[in-house]
User: Fold Zn-finger containing protein from Merdimonas faecis.
Amino acid sequence: MKEKIMRFMYGRYGMDSLGKCLVIVGLIAMLTAGWTDSLVLVTLSWALIIYAYFRMFSRNIYKRSAENQWYLDKTYKLRLFFARQKNMMQQRKTHHIYKCPVCKQKIRIPRGKGRIEIRCPKCNATFIKKS
Assistant:
């Protein structure tokens, strides 16, 4: 069975970031439509899901790739913001992150060093904080 699916999908575009987003937004619209009985949301959800499957089974790989690249370009700043927040949360386990009182530069200090004098690498201001 797996081999048949692989043969069927050969030469087709498959799933990408835009396709995943379309399916998720379509499912959310479908759930919302179930609670609100909105015909517009039902139509929108089905249109999004059908378009996602159309993209997945499409043989026009160049056009689908261009659509995905457009989507990635438009969502770059949002994805970067969430990636930075995730990185900051992971670093909070091992480091303190302080802002320089003079220039507002973020400075990463390891935890567990006690009270230390911190020198800002940007403006050379010094301040004392607990690590």
Remarks:
- The chain has two domains: 2-74, 94-130.
